[in-house]
User: Fold this.
Amino acid sequence: MRKKIIAANWKMNMTQGEAAAFVETLLLELGDESDVDVVIIPPFTAIPKVTEALGAAQNIKVGAQNMHWERSGAFTGEISAAMLRDLYVRYIVLGHSERRQYFGETDEIVNRKVRAAHEALLRPIVCIGETLDQREHGNVEKILAHQLRGSLADLNGKELTETVVAYEPVWAIGTGRNATPQQAQEAHAFIRHTLTQISDSATAEKVRIQYGGSVKPENAAELMSQPDIDGALVGGASLDARSFAQIVKAARPDDRD
Assistant:
């Protein structure tokens, strides 16, 4: 059975002090949680403070929101995988719709980053998702398959199983709208079917697929009760430690029985 993974994507939010306070509260709320993989993904400036605040806690990992595909070089303003490893980062979000929309990232660019992440032993969380216009025109599967095949090109089976796919319908990110559990499950099932075509069924069954898009404590349990939804990539609701902790608790196996 695939272990649920809940990740907090803070985006461009949280100072160092705010990050430390968040972690302190979260540790109190979750205790020694081990039934769910928990990842905090702060802005670069807060990564050291989050790691420091976590201390000896082993049940919460740290991620980053982006990186460059090259190991080093003349890329002003960029961060390399080695720099992130030096900060004890374990996960890396790649291909988020905001990166695709505002910074022109293509599937090819995302793929270069994904391959660089695996080379550095980072675990990528690869985001894919359709716009409202694409959904209304019946192109959901076409868009998801294209993004998935492009972003995960040339990965071997082991690399695929160590990749997390995050389905984030663009129309649901930060809008307060979210896909219904049925819509989300249909998309996740299609993603897993496409992964079977890319690799094989055994590999596809091991890949964890998160849902992202206005996930809240109120809808988390129902979303994660779906057979192909293996967690959540949480945006706005992850900025409040207690709210995020409720989402993590909703993913616990006992809470979903």
Remarks:
- The radius of gyration is 17 Å.
